[in-house]
Fold this sequence. Notes:
Layout: H1 3-11, H2 22-31, H3 36-53, H4 57-60, H5 75-83, E1 88-91, H6 97-104, E2 112-115, H7 119-129, E3 138-140, H8 148-155, E4 163-167, H9 175-188, E5 196-204, E6 208-211, E7 219-222, H10 225-235, E8 239-246, E9 264-273
Helix pairs in contact: 3-7, 9-10
Amino acid sequence: MNPTISAVIQGWYLPDPTTLSPITLEVFQKYTDLPTDSILPHILAMRERAWKVYPYPCIGAFRFLDFSISESPNYAALVTRLQHGATLLDLGCCFGQDLRKLISDGAPPANLYGADIRPDFIDLGYDLFRDRSTLQSTFLAPANIFDDAEDALLATLDARMDVVHIGSFLHLFEYADQVRAVRRIAGLLKQVKGSVVLGRQIGSLKSGEYPHPTNKKQTMFRHDCETFKKLWDEAGGEWEVDVELQMTKRETGQREPVFGDVDVRWLRFVVTRK
């Protein structure tokens, strides 16, 4: 591996925490049968296993413990909607941690779907949350919207989802591929008013193509609010786009530069079909 790339990846690997956030403890206490003092060692061991599969920033920096879907606007209303029969797909679900958060808050497992390009992460999710024999949600892998064969798995969900959640997903691609992605995601939604795409990703005060940290042949487009709205205009159809840039945070509460870029922000969004 290129030494510069290797150094960037190692920078994503944060030291082991000595405590867990209240939300993390709550989810694991409610969802698993682990004693409280065993939860942190269990999580640390699972991170080691996942890092060897693929060193994503969300693994090294423990972002899989953010349960970011619960920070979405109207999260309580989303849970209620699922309780009344709505379906949700978490695209690029990693361990399926956001699905477990929804379940711990009362969402019916059978209404939830997860899809990821890496089957190993879904498998690790069963071990992380200790629910291999009990979870009634559906997982699809490998699921790749840019590969015709692997996209066939996702096609079984076409026009069936009330909600699609995409966390830390679109920002992995250049602008042209993001247009392709949102058009494909739109096809997964029910073709009715009120179907929703929600999530968060890396954005920037200065929108544009940025170098890909692990592939010099690719770029990653980071949006500000206006370019993100333009993206959905290009997706076709009519959408109400609610989007904002937020400061990124670590548990210390300090702003977290990503790839050394002080203009980076979290971009959080809710996109609703009109």
